[in-house]
Amino acid sequence: MARPRNNPGDLAELPTELRSDRPKGDQIREILQTLTRNLSAGTVLPSERVLAERFGVARMTVRQEVDRVVAEGLAARRPGGGTFVAEPRPARMLTSSFSQDMRARGIVPGGKVLEHRIGTADEALAAELEEPVGTPVLHLVRLRTADGEPMAIERTFLSLSRYPGLDELDLSEVSLYDSLSTRWGVTLGMVSASIIAAPPDASDCELLGIDATTPCLIITSAPRTASGEVIEFGRSVYRSDRYDITIAYRAT
């Protein structure tokens, strides 16, 4: 593991304040996730005290979100050394969308759209999507169900430059990947993904109908088409008490 460097993430790269229309904890977690993508492994992150003072929130709120990014494997702690960007975890390969996966198991897939908003790709997201900075993107959050029961929460970004009009579809009624296939000719190829175990946060517990002791699988992925183009970039939370993963990978 890399030795933590003593140059904490540049505060100039952080927002000066949080938005009032979204939960503060969610925003702090996204800020920390962005920092871990932009900084090299071993770089020390801003302390809980610094983040709490900058954004005017309780240190406990910051600590909970730091705990989350540590549990997700994006950051790590060392006694006396603060919190730092973790070494990248090795990836595996998934081979189907949620709907395809459920149907293959004889289960009826479903979903409810929790958030649907349009924004633009910053440098980190643009790199993940392999699109120019400023590209319009759809940020989609969905509760995924299996035979009507909560199974997962999917949070994903898709390029509206690559898929114009995608934001006009009602994705609570139609499959995302079925729509990408029929309207834009997308054929799903192999999916590079990181899969780790982590505890759910309070809002995810409520949505998934579980308590805080139920472990979840956090899947960060960037599926590609059969021709190699990035389809989406997202992070999903799956109930490990109801879901197991079959993976295919190339031996080296």
Could you describe the 3D structure shown?
There is one protein chain. The protein contains seven helices and nine strands. The mean pLDDT is 84. It is globular, with a radius of gyration of 18 Å. Helix 1 (24-38) packs across helix 3 (59-71) and helix 2 (48-55) packs across helix 3 (59-71). The chain has 252 residues and is an alpha+beta fold. Strand 8 (216-225) and strand 9 (233-239) form a beta hairpin. The chain has helices at residues 24-38, 48-55, 59-71, 98-104, 123-129, 176-184, 202-208, and strands at 75-78, 82-85, 92-94, 109-120, 136-146, 149-159, 188-198, 216-225, 233-239.
Tell me the layout of helices and strands.
Blueprint: H1 24-38, H2 48-55, H3 59-71, E1 75-78, E2 82-85, E3 92-94, H4 98-104, E4 109-120, H5 123-129, E5 136-146, E6 149-159, H6 176-184, E7 188-198, H7 202-208, E8 216-225, E9 233-239
Antiparallel strand pairs: 1-2, 3-7, 4-5, 5-6, 6-9, 7-8, 8-9
Query: Terminal Cα separation, in Å?
Result: 22 Å
Please state the average pLDDT score. Answer: 84
Uncertain segments are: none
The secondary-structure element order is HHHEEEHEHEEHEHEE
- Strand line-up of the largest beta sheet: 3-7-8-9-6-5-4
The count of helical stretches stands at: 7
Based on secondary structure, the structural category is alpha+beta
The share of residues in extended strands comes to 25-35%
The counted number of beta strands is: 9
